[in-house]
């Protein structure tokens, strides 16, 4: 009886320890980030944050994405300051996107936007999909 308890305990530790290791294998050491914002004026501090996180994370720094949704998409066209920040974002490998639903709502033609800006169909859905894929997310 004493040996049975020892064997059962050892078996439980083996099973629980193995399942915990599998869960850990599922997560990467790479840190990926996504920011969902309703204000394009936040792009400059977001890029500063991306720089700091890249330095802090070192080799573990992964992707950094920014998604703009809402009325702020109206401020993107013919905006020299925003275009300059998009160029800075590209140099930092930060991908900036505009929400297609917001563009439609405010009658903005994607052709009127800077070339460096990516358009995603649904910014909120895209943010959730990235979060499900392990991205650390922030909404501002």
TrEMBL record:
Q: Does the keyword Signal apply?
A: yes
Q: Which Pfam families match?
A: DsrE
The identity of this protein, by name, is DsrE family protein
Q: Where is the signal peptide?
A: 1-23
Q: Which InterPro entries match?
A: DsrEFH-like (IPR027396), Sulphur_relay_DsrE/F-like (IPR003787)
Q: Which domain of life is it from?
A: Bacteria
Tell me which UniProt keywords the record has, alphabetically.
Signal
């Amino acid at each position: 009886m004493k040996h049975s308890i020892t064997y059962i305990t050892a078996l439980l530790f083996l099973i629980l320890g193995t399942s915990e290791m599998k869960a850990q294998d599922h997560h990467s050491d790479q840190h990926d980030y996504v920011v969902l914002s309703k204000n394009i004026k936040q792009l400059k501090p977001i890029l500063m944050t991306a720089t700091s996180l890249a330095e802090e994370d070192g080799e573990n720094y992964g992707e950094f994405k920014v998604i703009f949704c809402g009325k702020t998409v109206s401020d993107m066209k013919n905006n020299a300051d925003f275009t300059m920040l998009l160029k800075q974002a590209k140099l930092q490998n930060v991908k900036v996107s505009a929400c297609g639903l917001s563009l439609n709502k405010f009658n903005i033609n994607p052709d009127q936007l800077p070339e460096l800006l990516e358009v995603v169909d649904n910014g909120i859905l895209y943010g959730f999909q990235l979060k499900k894929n392990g991205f650390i997310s922030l909404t501002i």
